[in-house]
Amino acid sequence: MVKMKRGVIEVITGCMFSGKSEELIRRIKRAKIAKQNVQVFKSSLDTRYDEGSVVSHSGAKVEAISIDHPEGIIAKIEDGTEVVAIDEAQFFNDRIIYVIEFLADKGLRVIVAGLDTDFRGEPFGPMPYILSRAEKVDKLTAICVICGDEATRTQRIINGNPASYFDSVIMVGASEKYEPRCRTHHVVLDKPDIFHR
Ligand SMILES: [Zn+2]
Predict the structure, then answer these.
(1) Which candidate in 82, 88, 101, 176 is catalytic?
(2) What's the number of CA atoms in the CB half-sphere (13 Å) around residue 112?
(3) Residues 63-81 pLDDT 10s
(4) In 3D, which of 2, 23, 26, 1 has the Cα closest to residue 11?
């Protein structure tokens, strides 16, 4: 009897500085040690370090193919690929959801890393839909820079002040920085108060 290949979706998520890329790279390296054929993709919007690689904050690095559109992954999948890794999945449009599911349905192991929430603490792009389709989810945490507790949120600071809820998620060229914070110390200016209290 022919053994069916079992596809699976694994998600590594959490706030910025929680070690998502580090964990993604660790799984990629282990798959390669196991002699599996791995292809790594990332959004061309992510040019933080190196366009041709996924790089963690601690400097670990693997080669990656930069793509503009989710369908670019399917177009570039090679015969024999068993594992597909995708970094910064939150940057893609919603069609990434169906690309990931298509690959898993074909029997591939798809490992996806991405931010679960944006700087406002709201679900980030396609991530909630990927999380809900995954067989396995690991939500990593960082350390809150204010109190030292576990950080689950990404604080955005523009010109030294917490960002407004209404600032656009991607502001190219703005003077801004991000830091990990816990729920208590995560500040979002102008956040709508839905209970009016
Ligand atoms: Zn805190």
Answers:
(1) 88
(2) 34
(3) 999 999 999 999 999 999 9
(4) 23
Residue 178 near residue 156, CB atoms below 8 Å: yes
Centroid of ligand 1 to alpha carbon of 19 (angstroms): 18
pLDDT tens digits for range 81-122: 999 999 999 999 999 999 999 999 999 999 999 999 999 999
Residue 168 lies in a domain: no
DSSP state of 184: T
Residue 48 has pLDDT above 90, yes or no: no
CATH number for the domain harbouring residue 71: 3.40.50.300
Tally of structural domains, the chain: 1
> By residue range, what is the domain housing residue 19?
8-141
Determine the distance separating the centroid of ligand 1 and the alpha carbon of 66, expressed in angstroms. 35
pTM exceeds cut of 0.85: yes
Would residue 112 count as lying in a domain?
A: yes
**Dist. CA 71 → ligand 1 center (Å):** 39
Any domain includes 173: no
Asked if residue 22 is part of any domain, the answer here is yes
22 is catalytic: no
